[in-house]
Amino acid sequence: MDELCYYWWMSFVIKGKRYRRSTEVKDRKTAQKIHDAVRGRIAEEKWIGIQEESGRTFKELMDRYMSEHSKLKKKSWLRDEVSLKHLLPFFEDSMVSEVTPELISGYKTGRLKEGAMPATLNRELALAKHAFNIGSKEWGWCRENPFCKVKMERENNARSRVLAYDEEEGLLNICPKWLKDIMTFALHTGARMGEILELSWKDVDLFRRVVVIHQGKTGRTKTIPLTPSAMEILKGKSKVRHLHASLVFPSANGTRMSDTNLGRAFRYALRKAKTENFRFHDLRHTFASRLAMAGKDLYLIQRLLGHTEPRMVQRYAHHSVESLRDGIDVLETLKKEAHERSRVTIPSQSQHD
Question: What is the pTM for the complete model shown?
Answer without folding.
Answer: 0.58
